[in-house]
Predict the 3D structure of the following.
Amino acid sequence: MQHNGMLRRIARSGLVATMFIGALVAVAAPASASDGASTQAIVCDPGETGLSFSSSSYVRTVTHSMYWTVPTGATVDYETNVTKVSTITAGLTFTTGGGVSADVIFASFEGKVGLELATSGSHTVTTSVTIHWHLGPGHYAVFRGNKKYTGSFSGGKCNSTGTVLSLFSGNAVSYTVLAEGAANCSSTYGSTTFEYKAKQIAC
């Protein structure tokens, strides 16, 4: 009788083990076609977007400039309209992927350059502007300009279930740091300065 009881316990243990292993197989196996869908692995945090800027740079860009002459023996404290010569427009272009908010990308752009930038869709003044300046005798290129920033970004956007990560990349343009001044046409300036560029345009 004791021997038969042990056999019954072994038989019951074998049945439980078989049921447990079968359950594991059912969980691990993808759903069959008859289930109407297949199980997909989680590859990212649902709804999250990650991105970074791999590079950024800026150039001083003259947007308004005009030639001005002050006669010998005179000084001028003046206010005048200065002509638009170029426009900077803030925006972005996707080279791969897309569907990511410009606000999200520009927030990352600001973090990269460490400055507050004009938002996507903004642009510098497209009409003449009034500049007030005090000048002695000479010939000048009066100007207004901004630092124009460009950057390259890339990242990934996770779908709502965390099963698909869509990659994207692109370029962004913006501007900041308004500058106004007057470059003396007879002076020498570094080639990256506002003064040099205004002189090239107006003198």
